[in-house]
Design goal:
six-stranded parallel β-sheet; 1 helix; globular; 5% helix; single chain; ADP-ribosylation fold; 2 domains
């Protein structure tokens, strides 16, 4: 980590569902100032220049996201675009759709010169890959672990085979699929289709008419009213014993609530 400098940086920050970060309560529109040393990962207010990097610290499917302005002393983190600042203003909340759009804009704007923002097909095989597309009918694929894929145009197709992948799409009719363990999939557009086969997957859809399916062990899913969810259920020997299927908004299933498969039914995750 470098020595702190005086800067003003436009950045992004994630919070828990109640707008808390590391025990501190934040509020949109307010400015906060840290009294004391500013050291990345230790003290000060933390945010990231690359929106996708906040997903290294906060969950894609349950967090609050915001555009922030960091100023004063700055201490940068060597691993990604995370940094600590002496002061931070929580400028505006970002919906999942707006967050994905910001991520796409940032990745494309900072892409290497040999990368074309207009490409329909982007693929990466190394670990920690970041792929983003803003045009319609984009196709993004990654095979390495910890990949991050984001698309804002309609009819996007995102696929990841490595573990701990994060896939997010804000356009309509998106298709997201992940086969590695601990994948997180989120879609905010209408008519999205999400599928996961690796263990401990988390799938979330906020648009209308979404379809979520997971054959993964210990998977969880949530959606808006009208979302169909199918989750595999396993016995104590990790053998699949069937699927729990239901439509959010029917039979007592609530929107924006995580469900798992238990006793042949979709039950609220506890």
């Amino acid at each position: 980590m470098n020595s702190p400098d005086l800067e003003t940086i436009a950045a992004f920050k994630a919070f828990g569902p109640n707008w808390k970060c590391r025990g501190h309560q934040f509020e949109v529109g307010k400015t906060y100032t840290h009294d004391g040393d500013v050291t990345a990962c230790e003290s000060g207010y933390h945010s990231c220049e690359n929106p996708l990097d906040v997903l290294n610290y906060y969950d894609l499917t349950t967090s609050k996201f915001a555009e922030v302005e960091a100023s004063g002393k700055i201490s940068r983190h060597e691993g990604d675009s995370k940094f600590a600042s002496a002061s931070i203003k929580i400028k505006a909340e970002l919906t999942l759709s707006a967050f994905i759009g910001a991520a796409v804009k940032w990745v494309i704007g900072n892409a290497s010169k040999d990368s074309k923002a207009g490409d329909r097909v982007k693929a990466a095989s190394g670990h920690y890959a970041q792929l983003a597309a803003s045009g319609h009918s984009a196709q993004l694929a990654a095979s390495g672990d910890s990949a991050q894929l984001a698309a804002s145009g309609d009819s996007a197709q995102l696929a990841a085979s490595g573990h701990s992948a994060k896939l997010a799409a804000s356009g309509n009719s998106a298709q997201l699929a992940a086969s590695g363990h601990y994948a997180k999939l989120a879609a905010s557009g209408n008519s999205a289709q999400l599928a996961a086969s690796g263990d401990s997957a988390q799938l979330a859809a906020s648009g209308d008419s979404a379809v979520i399916a997971s054959s993964a062990f210990q998977s969880q899913a949530k959606g808006a009213n009208g979302t169909w969810i199918a989750l595999a259920e396993f016995d104590g020997n990790y053998k699949c014993i069937g699927f729990a299927v239901g439509c959010i908004g029917k039979d007592g299933l609530l929107p924006d609530t995580y469900y798992c498969a238990r006793n042949g039914k979709l039950e609220v995750v506890k």
